[in-house]
């Protein structure tokens, strides 16, 4: 069966690695983001990858993203809600608009992507909805209560939707990476260095100390988990929040 995966946030980090991995095993891929340049760079590496500009917090834009992707590459049967953003602040200093922005990108963006994506799946005999959540969807961390609230929300939505769709040939899952070596992580390290005066190695170890394997996750490990979920062997795996974290959550 022809597979076509749409990946939000596919121009950088985890999303770009998922795009390269899936295209490498013969799956057509559409990568989505707000900036043209990183998307074109990912698409230029493999003729199976196309790029579409969209903002996942905007319902109209999300609808157009699925239409454009299907026109260019055929029916979409794999939807990967990966786009996200993280910020850190003490709880008392999180302004309401900061809280709302983090919910909009991480939770509402996943909701809109899944809801419009499900309309594409409805006419098909195979479908996969996958959210890239986080270990912050399974446990708390200090200074990211808005991000953790959003990612816990994603995990709750995935568990509920999986039950709602259990009679259909679709699965719904969340992949929950621990700290993963991407541009998002690099921004967090720079932020810690700036706020605490730590050097880079101190800032890095402050983040990976929670991982029992004492290292950062590589984007390829998240991509391999997504590729497994897409395969027929994982058709009974639904409603799961799969921790890719060196055993940090269990
Ligand atoms: N890195 C980690 O340690 C880590 C750990 C656990 C979970 N995660 C999750 O993994 C996912 C990928 O993160 P990453 O680490 O790969 O970070 P990243 O490199 O910053 O990627 C985030 C991507 O999301 C896109 N994006 C952000 N807002 C968007 C919007 N409104 N509409 C469309 N696209 C948008 C960005 O592209 P544009 O700016 O061009 O739109 C960017 O390509 C996120 O959901 C993140 O929360 C990351």
Measured between the Cα atoms of the first and last residue, the distance is 35 Å
The CATH homologous superfamily of the largest domain is called NAD(P)-binding Rossmann-like Domain
The overall pLDDT average reads 97
Tally of separate helices: 8
Provide the CATH top-level class of the largest domain. Answer: Alpha Beta
Return the string of H and E elements. EHEHEHEHEHEHHHE
- In the CATH hierarchy, the third-tier topology of the largest domain is known as Rossmann fold
Low-confidence stretches: none
How are the strands of the largest sheet arranged?
A: 3-2-1-4-5-6-7
Tell me roughly what share of residues is in helical segments: 40-55%
Q: What is the domain tally? A: 2
- List of distinct ligands in this structure: NADP nicotinamide-adenine-dinucleotide phosphate
The CATH architecture designation of the largest domain is 3-Layer(aba) Sandwich
Q: Provide the β-strand percentage band.
A: 15-25%
**Gross morphology:** globular
Radius of gyration: 17 Å
| Major sheet size, sense and barrel closure | 7 strands, parallel
Which structural class is indicated by helix and strand composition? Answer: alpha/beta
Find the count of extended strands (DSSP E, 2+ residues): 7
């Amino acid at each position: 069966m022809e597979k076509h995966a749409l990946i939000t946030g596919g121009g950088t980090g985890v999303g770009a690695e998922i795009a390269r991995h899936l295209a490498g095993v013969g799956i057509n891929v559409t990568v989505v983001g707000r900036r043209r340049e990183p998307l074109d760079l990912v698409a230029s590496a493999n003729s199976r990858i196309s790029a579409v500009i969209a903002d996942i917090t905007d319902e109209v834009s999300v609808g157009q993203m699925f239409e454009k992707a299907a026109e260019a590459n055929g029916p979409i049967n794999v939807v990967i809600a990966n786009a996200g953003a993280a910020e850190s602040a003490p709880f008392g200093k999180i302004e309401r608009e900061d809280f709302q922005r983090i919910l909009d990108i991480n939770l509402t963006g996943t909701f809109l992507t899944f809801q419009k994506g499900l309309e594409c799946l409805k006419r098909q005999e195979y479908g996969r909805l996958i959210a890239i959540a986080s270990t912050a969807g399974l446990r708390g961390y200090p200074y990211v209560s808005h991000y953790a609230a959003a990612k816990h929300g994603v995990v709750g939505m995935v568990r509920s939707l999986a039950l709602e769709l259990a009679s259909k040939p679709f699965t719904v899952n969340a992949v929950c990476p621990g700290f993963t070596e991407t541009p998002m992580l690099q921004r967090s390290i720079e932020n810690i260095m700036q706020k605490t005066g730590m050097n880079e190695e101190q800032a890095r170890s402050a983040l990976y100390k929670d991982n029992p394997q004492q290292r950062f996750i590589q984007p390829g490990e998240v991509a391999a988990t997504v590729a497994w979920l897409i395969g027929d062997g994982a058709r009974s795996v639904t409603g799961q929040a799969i921790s890719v974290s060196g055993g940090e959550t269990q």
